[in-house]
Design a protein that fits this description.
The complex is a heterotrimer of chains A (431), B (307) and C (339). By secondary structure, chain A is α/β, with parallel strands linked by helices. Chain A has 2 domains: 236 residues, 3-Layer(aba) Sandwich (Rossmann fold), CATH 3.40.50.2300; 105 residues, Response regulator (Rossmann fold, 3-Layer(aba) Sandwich), CATH 3.40.50.2300. Chain A has 13 helices and 17 strands. The radius of gyration of chain A is 23 Å and the shape is globular. Chain B has one domain. Chain B has 12 helices and 2 strands. In chain B, strands 1-2 form a two-stranded antiparallel ribbon. In chain B, helix 1 runs antiparallel to helix 11. Chain B starts with a helix and ends in a 14-residue tail after the last helix. Chain C has 339 residues and is mostly helical. Chain C has 16 helices and 4 strands. In chain C, the strands form 2 sheets. Chain C has a two-stranded antiparallel sheet with strand order 1-4. The longest helix of chain C has 27 residues. Classes of the chains: A alpha/beta (431), B mainly alpha (307), C mainly alpha (339). The interface between B and C is large, with 48 and 40 residues. Chain A: Belongs to the leucine-binding protein family. Chain A: InterPro entries: BCAA_transport, Leu-bd, Leu_Ile_Val-bd, Peripla_BP_I, TAT_signal, TAT_signal_bac_arc. Chain A: This is ABC transporter substrate-binding protein.
């Protein structure tokens, strides 16, 4: 039994006792240290918090394929520290309320060692607050809100996707010289959109763009015709869009329907593979960012794709994309670190992850990546891509245009991160 | 300024017709059967998925035996999709009506709740069959792409959809007002004794009306699919505007709903153009404004749903 | 279909005692039945919300489909009061109640003249408006990131300070408030005011003929139920240590209706309590076994509406009724029992 349960019972005695006595009760220290006496050969348990319903159900399932694939690969090689790895998954429903409850359940009932999985920032925040409260290491695999590794960072949380700001920086720098100076900005009127738009505006202004107009689009907008007409009336060279989720899918549909996807030039933020797949190369419109593509010309990529296809022969998404990739890489790194430090102790693992460099070859990207010790954000290569006019096959939607060194596109939002101190973070080890 | 306004007004009218189309099935069911059909959105979605299967080889059923069918030209396939999608929604709607029978005569809230539950179930079934990922409904190239409109490009499909919506509205009106079936349906709304006296089976009538209303939701799903995309949760986008249009127009009024649809379309289009960040709210503010002064909407009649 | 007509003057009934004992000991047995403490916290908060909501839905017959918005406003108000004004539990909870009630009172001005479907639809419109503003106004609400780092503030009585930081401690705070609320609501629903509410549900017109100002009463009951929603929202902000926008969506507003009705809010004071328990336990247990838990829950819900619209409370009453009848008439004929 873990110590936390004992202390709860202790608390109850105090509470009930004091209730009867009507006196003051000083409830025991809140900060439990969940430490087992000795490690054992019991399995290492990982809590997967991937969405299966709500707006990001599809991406949630894509990252689940990634994390589970990494776990399966380790188990096939004999596990970690000689122990089997078990995963327990619960649907977080793209919903913070569910995120909180699932995280509480994972930690207090399932006794997981680690948590991983997130697409939407609210859900990621809800999970990470619970994780921080108990000290459980949590990997945010795919939420790209700049606030995730900025003002909402945590000591136990590590952010594996590029942020909206990284993508803006990568895209905007190149676009002015290629497409022209007159820019029209559209963004979703919520945190991710507002932050990303601010980042775009800053870069655009720095490189001499003229911002003609910026339009905030309410989240949940299903009709873009008025905005598209307005854009046409303004005649910009470039439309930079920070639009996400289902709104983006709807916008994409209506832009291509009006035949506006070629001119003006569109600069979109990250396009997640599960949002594009199955819709044909036309769905990939404008210039946009991604962290990985299955036709990157790098060693290991095709083996990874093959391994994915062997493991998931009946999935509609027949090749892995950035979301699955992030899930896979994050989980693989976690398990490696556990092996390296020889323990599941949260502090040892956090310290081993902070500042950790991961080689480009190992991550199947062009540049080495590093986990920023100050923000816990993985600084990685960002690729710019556009729709592929000459696809190799019916999965080859993207044409990779360029790639940016992580140093050149470092997000300034990361500077607003201040991690909790080690001392303020409870120690956590499920043994 | 005025020159800039014209395209937005025209766009607003097109949008308004689509809003009216969205509300037709909802209107029929609420007007005739006095059931607030919260499954309207789910039936809408079902129609869209039905059409996707008939149009796209990757519609979730990549069966070999369907291949000769997919080799047909796009237009006949589209016509078939336009029939199959609504048919699917209609059949499921009839099933729902059978369940609903137990709530007739009780508080209308129960009908609403039953359809709320049905919406959950239908959405989950869709997720089970097609998964959560996005589908795309291809359209024949004759009604796709953009066309030049002054010095602007506008969507051909939208013009087609607006015309289609007008035709549907007109046909539904003719059906309700110029055919004996329509008279019976309208009688059923207010006087079930009369229907029985005329020798019609009320049970069958209700089944057919609900099925028809559900099929109309399916039609809207097929028409909106190329504009909104197809995903399991897309129905929510349909049910809320349908609600707004019906309340604004007034329950039980055909032309109330149509004019409310147009009004919402124009207001949304204009706010989206000139006050974009308030465009989603404008619909509700319009509703509040109208209903505050006219408590039954533009042209609503008294109904048991108020009790 | 209605509540038992018998009025009671008692402040505490056997049912209340059972509820207090059952929920008062919940932290002791919740883990033994395979659940976990946080779930208990969430359940008791939603019970508070649902009891307040049922004043409106069950007692007065006003189906509000925008109540999630008020729950959400309560959570934001708690968080903002803590950040911007005074991080004191009583103050912050009071702020949650007062601010939410103020929004509720303003909304009720528009709704109190409406009935039936127009009431339902207008409440949806208001819910959407609040949701929209919260999503847009990110400086205040944190938008979809949420308003984070909300504290579980300690309970302070003079020099005494009780922590609420662990789930069990927080549970007991919620439980104490739940007990107070249950007793107050029980009295309220059995008071003349409660009788007028029921009469409005039966026939609004007749109540106004008798001389009551129906719209004022509807306004007051709406405001009261939003105040309780605000309290629940404030507690929920503590539980989650954050306030998130999703709870304000139409989906969650619908879910509270579903919970209250599935439990039998139309026929019993305790309906909302039963409904909340069923909802959370079903989703936790079903959710652990099947991805499509909503499918099964939706089916269950449909069957209940079709075959037992009085909900769990109705089933319970039938069960008791059967037992009582059997006791009274050991040789009673079956047809009579069925009738």
């Amino acid at each position: 039994m873990s110590r936390v349960k004992q202390s709860r019972r202790g608390f109850l005695k105090t509470a009930l006792g004091s209730g009867v006595a009507g006196g003051a009760a000083l409830f025991g220290p809140w900060k439990h240290n969940r430490v087992y006496a000795a490690a054992s050969d019991k399995p290492i348990k990982i809590g997967l918090t991937h969405d299966a319903s709500g707006q990001f159900a599809n991406s949630g399932q894509a990252e689940k394929r990634g994390t589970e694939m990494a776990i399966a690969e380790f188990n096939e090689k004999g596990g970690v520290l000689g122990r089997k790895i078990e995963s327990v998954w619960m649907d977080t429903e793209t919903n913070p309320q569910t995120g909180t409850r699932v995280a509480e359940r994972m930690i207090t009932r399932e006794n997981v060692h680690f948590l991983a999985g997130a697409i939407q920032s609210g859900t990621a925040n809800a999970i990470s607050q619970v994780a921080q409260k108990y000290g459980c290491v949590y990997f945010n695999t795919n939420s790209s809100s700049p606030t995730e590794s900025g003002k909402n960072c945590h000591r136990v949380k590590f952010v594996w996707d590029g942020s909206g700001e990284n993508f803006s920086l990568a895209a905007a720098r190149n676009a002015i010289s290629t497409f022209g100076k007159n820019w029209f900005l559209v963004y979703n009127d919520y945190v991710w959109g507002q932050n990303t738009n601010d980042a775009t505006k800053k870069v655009a202004a720095k490189f001499g763009a003229n911002i003609m107009d910026e339009v905030a689009i309410p989240v949940g907008t299903r009709d873009w015709s008025s905005v598209l007409l307005k854009i046409q009336q303004a005649k910009p060279d470039v439309v930079a869009a920070a639009v996400g989720g289902d709104d983006f899918k709807v916008m994409r549909q209506q832009v291509s329907d009006m035949g506006l996807d070629r001119k003006p030039a569109w600069i979109n933020n990250q396009q997640d593979w599960p949002d594009v797949f199955g819709l044909g190369a036309d769905a990939a419109f404008g210039v946009f960012g991604t962290t990985w593509y299955h036709y990157l010309d790098l060693p290991g990529v095709s083996d990874f794709v093959k391994a994915y296809q062997e493991r998931y022969p009946v999935t509609r998404i027949s090749v892995p994309g950035n979301v699955t990739y992030n899930g896979y890489i994050a989980m693989r790194e976690l398990l490696r670190v556990v092996e390296e430090v020889g323990s599941t102790d949260n502090m040892k693992i956090i310290k081993a992850l902070e500042g950790r460099t991961m080689s480009a070859a190992d991550r199947m990207q062009h540049f080495d990546a590093v986990i920023d010790p100050a923000s816990h954000h993985v600084q990685q290569t960002i690729y710019l891509a556009e729709g592929n006019a000459a696809p190799k096959d019916d999965t080859d939607y993207f044409k990779i245009l360029s790639w940016s060194d992580p140093d050149a596109i470092r997000a300034s939002a990361d500077d607003s991160c201040s991690l909790e101190s080690y001392e303020a973070t409870p120690s956590y080890d499920q043994g | 300024m005025f020159y800039d306004l014209i395209p937005h007004l025209i766009n607003g009218v097109a949008l308004g017709l689509l809003f009216a189309l969205l509300a037709l099935g909802f209107m029929l069911i609420i007007g005739v059967m006095e059931v607030i059909n919260l499954a309207h959105g789910a039936l809408f979605t079902l129609g869209a998925y039905g059409a996707v299967v008939m149009m796209a080889p990757d519609g979730g059923f990549p069966y070999e035996f369907m291949q000769p069918y997919y080799d047909l030209p796009a237009i006949p396939r589209y016509v078939i999709a336009l029939i199959v999608g609504p048919l699917l929604a209609g059949v499921v709607g009839m099933g729902l009506e059978v369940c609903l029978r137990r709530t007739y005569g009780a508080d209308p809230l129960y009908g609403l709740l039953l359809t709320f539950g049905a919406a959950l179930v239908i959405e989950e079934v869709i997720r089970g069959i097609w998964g959560s990922s996005e589908y795309y409904l291809p359209t024949p190239k004759e009604i796709s792409g953009g066309f030049i409109f002054g010095d602007l490009i506008y969507s051909t499909y939208r013009i087609y959809a607006a015309i289609f919506a007008s035709v549907m509205i007109g046909m539904l009106w003719l059906f309700l007002n110029k055919t004996p079936y329509g008279a019976v349906i309208k009688a059923g709304a207010h006087d079930s004794e009369m229907v029985r006296a005329l020798g019609y089976n009320l049970k069958v009538l209700r089944l057919l009306v609900f099925g028809f209303g559900a099929a109309l939701a399916g039609v809207a799903g097929v028409i909106m699919a190329p504009i909104w995309g197809v995903r399991p949760v897309v129905g929510v986008d349909a049910v809320i505007p349908a609600f707004v249009v019906i309340v604004l127009g007034g329950v039980g009024s055909f032309w109330g709903a149509v004019s409310a649809g147009l009004m919402v379309g124009i207001v949304v289009a204009l706010t989206a153009a000139f006050l974009t960040d308030w465009s989603l709210l404008s619909m509700y503010l319009l509703l509040l404004l109208v209903v505050t002064f006219r408590s039954r909407g533009l042209a609503g009649k008294a109904s048991v749903l108020e009790a | 279909m209605d509540y038992p007509t018998k009025q009671t003057k008692a402040w505490v009934t056997p049912q209340i005692v059972v509820a207090i004992v059952l929920f008062g000991t919940m932290p002791l047995w919740i883990e033994a039945v395979g659940l976990y403490q946080y779930l208990g916290v969430e359940v008791i908060i939603w019970m508070i919300f649902a009891l307040g909501y049922n004043l409106l839905l069950g007692y007065t017959g006003l189906p509000s489909f925008g109540h999630g918005a008020f729950f959400g406003i309560g959570a934001y108000a708690y968080g903002l009061a803590q950040f911007e004004v005074w991080p004191n539990l009583w103050f912050c909870l009071a702020a949650a109640v007062v601010v939410t009630a103020a929004f509720g009172a303003a909304t009720a001005l528009f709704l109190s003249h409406r009935r039936g479907i127009y009431f339902a639809l207008m409440s949806i419109a208001f819910g959407q408006i609040f949701f929209f503003i919260a999503s847009k106004w990110t400086d205040v609400t944190g938008g979809e990131d949420g308003l984070l780092d909300i504290q579980r503030l300690p309970v302070e009585f003079g020099a005494m300070s009780l922590s609420t930081r662990s789930n069990v401690e927080l549970y007991y705070l919620c439980f104490a408030l739940f007990c107070v609320l249950v007793i107050l609501l029980w009295r309220l629903t059995n008071s003349p005011y409660g009788r007028v509410l029921r009469a409005i549900k039966q026939n609004e017109m007749r109540v106004s003929f008798i001389g009551y100002k129906v719209s004022v009463i509807k306004w007051s009951v709406f405001t009261l139920s939003t105040a309780i929603a605000g309290l629940a929202g404030g507690l929920f902000a503590m539980a989650q240590e954050g306030a998130y926008i999703n709870i304000m969506s139409l989906q969650w507003s619908g879910t509270i209706v579903l919970m209250v009705l599935i439990g039998g809010g139309f026929v019993s004071f305790w309906g909302p309590v039963l409904g909340v328990i069923l909802y959370f336990v079903a989703r936790d247990v079903l959710g652990a076994y099947t991805e499509a838990w909503l499918l099964w829950f939706g089916l269950m819900f449909m069957l209940l509406v079709m075959f037992k619209p009085e909900g769990l409370a109705g089933m319970w009453r039938d069960l008791l009724g059967t037992l009582v009848t059997r006791k009274a008439e050991p040789k009673g004929n079956p047809a009579k029992v069925e009738g």
